UniProtKB/TrEMBL annotation:
Gene: mtnA
Entry's family note: Belongs to the EIF-2B alpha/beta/delta subunits family. MtnA subfamily.
Chain sites annotated for binding substrate: 54-56, 91, 203, 254-255
Catalysed reactions listed for this entry: 5-(methylsulfanyl)-alpha-D-ribose 1-phosphate = 5-(methylsulfanyl)-D-ribulose 1-phosphate
Keyword Cell division among record annotations: no
Stated role: Catalyzes the interconversion of methylthioribose-1-phosphate (MTR-1-P) into methylthioribulose-1-phosphate (MTRu-1-P).
Catalytic residues (positions): 244 (proton donor)
EC number: 5.3.1.23
Residue stretches in coiled coil: none
Domain of life: Bacteria
Name of this protein: Methylthioribose-1-phosphate isomerase
């Protein structure tokens, strides 16, 4: 996607040296576009843990490049396995991280050490390119949903509510739920996006609002707790969100607060659609509420907030009463019964095992083997 007319991806190999890895530091957005140069796997691990890069598909792609960086220095079996395990432990909920590292290990274990680094860069690039094409396709398969609503609204904008950030900076490019929004906007469909601020890290107000503004998409930032009210008053035509892991029965792990939005949507008969690439599927898990590990982040993210002061300085201030403890679960799980449907790169389906197997029959073998 473009930043002020200049095309960017959210991760890339530096063309100057051909091996270091470039990322946009998302903790500096929307106040500054700062490009970081990563040269070793520890920097990649920090970037993922600190959310300099975040977003389920993106952290998988960046971890893949982190493994390639490590293998430049040490391509031994021990290094391969050890660095993959270290990077895989950075964040527990998004299955894309494990998916990408498993794909890298499958590709690299058979390769002789002398050729492993080159093979790792090729495998990481393949993951990145797969994500770009996958996210583009997600947008295409979601577009008919917006077109159908637009047809009923006779020229009035389609009102879409989204949670967290599922845009091009949550993926290698295009995004997932936002890929649908971008394609509908670019197709000339009048639309408006309610952007959940998405406490506590404000991925909505800081990242989604920034992305949509750069692309000229009409939007309004709202408090997370406003969504139910908007739905009660007919101000939301559809909810479109991303996900960090979808289980075999269609349960959806996503940013904390998604479950509450889904409950409000269900109560107000608002369609609740979830966009995901194949790398977000976890067919090894059935009951998401019981089985998906929920990342618990530093409570300071809840007790404090980072923003820009009137004199332009980016500061972090405490908003909670001094001395009060906090709790910071970063994700929740929306049961499949609250999900209207899933939008994937292969098409749309019900949030059910049958729906997913219809789009991904290759997983049938796994299920049958159980
Ligand atoms: C395109 S999926 C993005 C997904 O990841 C986000 O989590 P985080 O910002 O903590 O990495 C959020 O759950 C989004 O829906």
């Amino acid at each position: 996607m473009k930043i002020d007319g200049v095309p960017y991806r959210s991760v890339w190999v530096d063309p100057e040296d051909g091996w270091s890895v470039r990322i946009i530091d998302q903790t500096r957005l929307p106040w500054a576009v700062e490009i970081l140069r990563l040269t070793e796997e520890k920097q990649v691990a920090h970037a993922i843990k600190s959310m300099q890069v975040r977003g389920a598909p993106l952290i998988g792609a960046v971890a893949a490049y982190g493994l390639a960086l490590a293998l430049r220095r040490d391509a031994s079996d021990a290094a391969l396995e050890g660095v993959a395990a270290m990077l895989g432990a950075t964040r527990p909920t998004a299955i894309n991280l494990r998916w990408a590292l498993a794909r890298m290990l499958d590709a690299l274990r058979p390769v002789p050490e002398a050729r492993r680094a080159d093979a790792a860069y090729a495998a990481a690039a393949a993951i990145a390119e797969d994500d770009v094409e996958t996210c583009r396709a997600i947008g295409q398969h979601g577009l008919p949903l917006i077109e159908a609503i637009a047809a009923r609204k006779t020229g009035k904008p389609v009102n879409i509510l989204t949670h967290c950030n599922t845009g091009w900076i949550a993926t290698v490019d295009f995004g997932t739920a936002l890929s649908v929004i971008y394609q509908a906007h670019d197709a000339g469909i009048p639309l408006h996006v309610w952007v959940d601020e998405t406490r506590p890290r404000n991925q909505g107000s800081a990242l989604t609002a920034w992305e949509l503004g750069k692309h000229g998409v009409p939007h309004t930032v709202v408090a997370d707790n406003a969504g139910g009210h908007l739905m009660q008053h007919g101000e939301v035509d559809i909810c479109l969100v991303g996900t960090d892991r979808v289980t075999r029965q269609g349960d959806v792990a996503n940013k904390i607060g998604t479950y509450l939005k889904a409950l409000a949507a269900h109560d107000n008969n608002v369609p609740f659609w979830v966009a995901l690439p194949h790398s977000t599927l976890d067919m090894s898990v059935r009951d998401g509420v019981r089985e998906i590990p929920i990342e618990e982040r530093d409570a300071r993210e809840v007790l404090e907030v980072t923003g820009q002061s009137w004199d332009g300085r980016v500061q972090t201030v405490r908003t909670a009463a001094p001395g009060s403890p906090g709790l910071n679960p970063a994700f929740d799980v929306t049961p499949a019964r609250l999900v209207t449907g899933l939008i994937t790169e292969r098409g749309r389906c019900d949030a059910t095992e049958a729906g997913l197997l219809g789009l991904y029959p290759e997983f049938l073998a796994n299920v049958a083997a159980e």
